[in-house]
Amino acid sequence: MGFCPRHCQKGVVFCSSIFLILIGLILVFSWQSICDGITKKQLSLENEYTKQFQFWKETPIPMFLEIHLFNWTNAADFKEGKAWTTKPQFTELGPYTFREIHTRTNIKFNDNNTVSFNTIRTWHFVPEKTRGSLDDNVTTLNTIAMTVGNMVKHKNYLLRRGVSFLLEEKRIPFTVTKTVREFLFDGYNDTLLNILHKIDLKGIKIPYDKFGWFYSRNGSSTYDGNYTMYTGADDIQKLGIVTRWNQSPRVPDYSGYCGLVNGTTGELWYPLKESKSISMFLSDTCSSLSLEANGSYSAFGLGGNLYSQTDRIFDNGTKYPDMDCFSPGVHLPSGVRNVSECKFGAPAFISMPHFYMADPSYRNAVEGMHPDPSKHSFYLALEPNTGLPLKVDANLQVSLYLENISGISMFEHVTPTMMPVLWFRQQASITENLADLAKTLVILPEVGTFTGYGILGIGSLLLFIGSFISVRNGWEGTEDEEPLTQNNC
């Protein structure tokens, strides 16, 4: 510093140290707020220009739907109107795998920081990931006949006898054998369904011209209903939380809190941090499912929290009294949820596949159930700072509850049994490109904070060195060189 006089040297050192200390303090105390603003801007659905909106409008993560059907192998041993002398036996077929794409439509931003929308789900068959063929034959209960029976089981006796006469007169079968494609997306013509559309039976309305478990869903913009959820524009912790389904904050199928629309759709999440539980509202169940924190998960160097089901997920008040409102009508052992009102009167119940985590009585009533936690669990792995899904493995089973119905010959002598129909697995995993993008948002707060501490340390060290040199009078140069006109920095 021979070219700079002593007062100049002091000025440079002390001004630089103070400047660095101020910058360091600003970064240390303000960087988190800056990062929160960046995160909010990128993660919210404030408008159609955010990154989150682009990802949400058409989900970029590859998704697959695997469907397994249960073939009733000894159905011929069960005669209509006869008492049962053996257990129903089932063999699992599949998986029949489909690529699944979600696209949002009818998007409307509301004034209260919510957005309303419909989801179009499109499925494309993936033969290379399928075991078997869509032309495989499957035998199962006659779902339409069971639906009619379930609709009239509490009606007056004369109506039930009339239904029984109709079933007998038209020779409606107790079981049905169709191909996989007919049972799933194509649907099949049903004699009883055609008759019901021609006559007007009070209280019996089935809004389909064919029957298939996924019939009319492929490419439909209305089947899953209309959702309204928070955009996170005002509070990122509300991001994705559903407030209304089909314009209502409740569903009519369940009483109390069980009928409340709450949780996310399962695809868009707020920053979870250390949340112990999460909830999702699913149109397939017309209700919410809750998962509990259960360990950790990592993908492409990105860590996440793992959430999975417990025995509470489909309890109906047997183990957890507050879950009793999920059991409208018939009260059964724990492990299944009645969704009949959600499925147009069909006696349908949702459970974990192979009755995993359900009361053993369900498995013991039939042959062919082999619950396996490694195959039949329901879990999500979510990055806690961004809510980004790292892994989704959602597994659910659909069963039909076969029960005695007085006055209808077809069902008068059956043994009440939960009859498995199908189970499905929905899988999705984050891609490396999305993981790299998420890493930027995850490490940004630490990078800024550590940089701030580093700059603060350098400034403090420079201040210490300048003070030490001043005490030792170790500055070089003379004081009579060009005077310092400003005694500040």
TrEMBL record:
Keyword Membrane recorded: yes
Gene Ontology CC annotations of this record: plasma membrane
PANTHER family per the UniProt record, alphabetical: FI02050P-RELATED (PTHR11923:SF114), SCAVENGER RECEPTOR CLASS B TYPE-1 SR-B1 (PTHR11923)
Main location, first listed in the record: membrane
Keywords: Cell membrane, Glycoprotein, Membrane, Transmembrane, Transmembrane helix
Name of the protein: Protein croquemort
Cellular compartments annotated: Cell membrane
Stated family: Belongs to the CD36 family.
Transmembrane spans: 12-31, 450-471
Tagged with keyword Transmembrane: yes
Source organism: Cryptolaemus montrouzieri
